[in-house]
Specification:
Layout lengths: L1 E5 L5 H12 L7 E5 L11 H20 L4 E4 L7 H7 L4 E3 H10 L5 E5 L5 H10 L6 E6 L12 H17 L4 E4 L8 H8 L3 E3 H14 L31
Parallel strand pairs: 1-2, 1-3, 3-4, 5-6, 5-7, 7-8
Length: about 250
Amino acid sequence: MRIKIINPNTTVSVTKLMADCARAVVAPGTEVVATSPECGPASIESHYDEMLSIPGLLEEVRQGEKIGCDGYVIGCFGDPGLQAARELACGPVIGIAEAAMHAASMLGTGFSVVTTLARTRGMAWHLAERYGMKRICRNVRAVNLPVLELEVDGTEVFDAILSECVKALAEDDAEVLVLGCAGMAGLAASIGRELGVPVVDGVTVAVKLVEALVANGLRTSKWSEYAQPLPKRYSGILSSYNLGTD
């Protein structure tokens, strides 16, 4: 089985972090391929960043189909391009926010999300509503650190995230914590041990969910909405995304 993790931003160190975390949890025989697009933003921290990350992400799905990937993980908590990726892919495509919120809903009666910048809180709330999780999402909190600052070594970043997690338990009536950024991958176990509650990292949960769906022989339905896009010509800088045309 081959699972492709697509980091929609172009920061390769974040891609490697996700790959390392995923390889630590997959079953023997499952290959993890992790990539970043050739084009796109260095980090995704706005609606503008998110929209501009999608063409590169979709190209990574197209390339994954050529090499026989069985399923995909979208490694950004905004789950950019998720629906479009499902149209292109035969196997299952799971976003890390989607996976994390669903997993959290099975582990307690309410969860809080701890993310990076405050300006992205509304984006996380939108996803909670889309996934039917708004009723049990107690809060979306931000540590007000840019995504790329999560890579800084030392305890300062960890302490900032941990502090917000403590507030979520004390103030939000949350029973489960969700780490709201792919750059936080690898911190869930340490924070969970520190606080004694489930802490969900969407990267590893999404990879295991894709693995389970593929192992059960389940693929993306092509019956209607997720069928391949209709052939048509795209112009200008999108000309390379033509489907089924000369």
